[in-house]
Design a protein that fits this description.
It is a single chain. This protein has 355 residues and is mainly alpha-helical. The chain folds into two domains: 8-204 and 320-350, Rossmann fold (3-Layer(aba) Sandwich), CATH 3.40.50; 225-317, Tyrosyl-Transfer RNA Synthetase. The chain contains 13 helices and seven strands. It binds adenosine monophosphate (AMP) and tryptophan.
Length: 355
């Protein structure tokens, strides 16, 4: 009996500038995984229609995320890099999943509640169904691992719920057609068409917080630009934003317990650890007991060292639109071949007269 081949999939929306949270929570991990895994990285442009329907510059934004992928070091030969709307099977599978998932599951999503706000009746149906499209992005390739930041954990649990319900509801057809794949779920060996995808949420920066408020997530939509470091910021801007980052008056703690009630200190040390590729404990071993006036310049230096080459590469790549478009077109063709195979089987399993 065969097993699912390990496959990594992740997506980033083309809405707003990428920031340090996106880099440490997602892109840095994408790059690390390309050496050990088969990987597919997607600019999820269809997702951008869920909160705001009309965009002036979706094409540019899509190219700019793709340029960021490449600037961080993703190899377009080794990995598949493309934008979602080129592969219609994502939307096709999302429709099937809309019929698998329950409205109650969607209503419980915290991202939906946050984005819809008080006037839920007036949110788009697409915003409610967003996790179903996200599950389709992943499962149309039957991907087994998804590197994301901590905020996506709930969506990945829902992706597993959808896969599991599909596998159960169609178990007889899947077996009849011989499309089942063996997988281990806890102690049990089960058979299913879709894998129960694992999130990869590890390291010291799975949730990078705002530089102005350590209790709020660093986000593209924060009105204060000082709250985040953008991948497009130059060295002076990075240094200034770190100098102005909110802290408390005490020196850095000497152990991990010392971060309790000090979210800003915790965040800056987490960022340092992730940028340096070391543990928080190691950062504390070096800076514990020291003042922020000493720690901040070291952090700024490290941030500039990491981000300046990415920034320069992004400018260089963005100047060659033909190259970026070529990568997305070619990636789209490769992705589509794989997605077509899955969808053909899904329609057979569901029993549609489609061939
Ligand atoms: P988004 O920009 O919302 O499409 O997010 C793209 C990726 O970056 C996702 O994997 C998110 O989980 C991750 N991400 C976004 N904001 C943060 C943050 N503040 N800290 C860590 N990861 C983040
Ligand atoms: N929901 C993710 C976010 O807001 C983006 C996304 C869409 C995604 N489809 C995905 C991430 C599939 C991982 C896998 O950041």
């Amino acid at each position: 009996m065969s097993e699912f081949k390990q496959l990594v999939f992740s997506g980033v929306q083309p809405t707003g500038n990428l920031h340090l949270g996106n880099y440490l929570g997602a892109l840095q991990k994408f790059v690390a995984l390309q050496d050990s895994h088969d990987c597919i990285y997607c600019v999820v442009d269809l997702h951008s229609l869920t909160a705001t329907l009309v965009h002036d510059d979706l094409k540019e934004q899509t190219r700019s995320i793709a340029a960021a992928f490449l600037a961080c070091g993703l190899d377009p030969e080794k990995n598949i890099i493309f934008n979602q709307s080129r592969v219609p099977q994502h939307a096709e599978l999302a429709w099937v999943f809309n019929c698998v998932a329950r409205i109650g599951w969607m209503n419980r999503m915290t991202q939906f509640k946050d984005k819809a706000g008080k006037d839920r009746e007036n949110a788009s149906l697409g915003l409610l169904a967003y996790p179903s499209l996200m599950a389709a992005d992943i499962l149309v390739y039957r991907a087994t691992h998804v590197p994301v930041g901590d905020d996506q954990k709930q969506h990945l649990e829902l992706t597993r719920d959808i896969a599991q319900k599909f596998n159960n509801d169609f178990s007889h057809r899947i077996a009849e057609l011989g499309y089942g794949v063996e997988m281990q779920v806890g102690e049990e060996a089960v058979n299913g068409f879709f894998p129960l995808t694992e999130p990869l949420i590890e390291g010291s920066a799975t949730r990078v917080m705002s530089l102005r408020d350590g209790t709020k997530k660093m986000s593209k939509s924060d009105p204060s630009d000082l709250s985040r470091i953008n991948l497009t910021d130059d060295a002076d801007t990075i240094v200034r934003k770190i100098r102005k980052a909110k802290t408390d008056p005490a020196p850095l703690p000497g152990d991990i317990e010392g971060f309790v009630g000090r979210p800003e200190a915790d965040n800056l040390v987490g960022i340092y650890a992730a940028l340096a590729g070391i543990s928080r404990e190691k950062v504390i071993a070096e800076f514990g007991g020291k003042q922020f006036s000493e720690f901040k310049p070291a952090l700024a230096e490290l941030a500039v060292e990491t981000l300046a080459p990415i920034n320069a590469e992004m400018r260089r790549i963005s100047a060659d639109l033909g190259y970026v478009d070529g990568v997305l077109r070619e990636g789209g063709e490769r992705a589509r071949q794989r997605a077509e195979e899955t969808m053909k089987k899904v329609y057979e399993i569901v029993g549609l007269l489609a061939d």
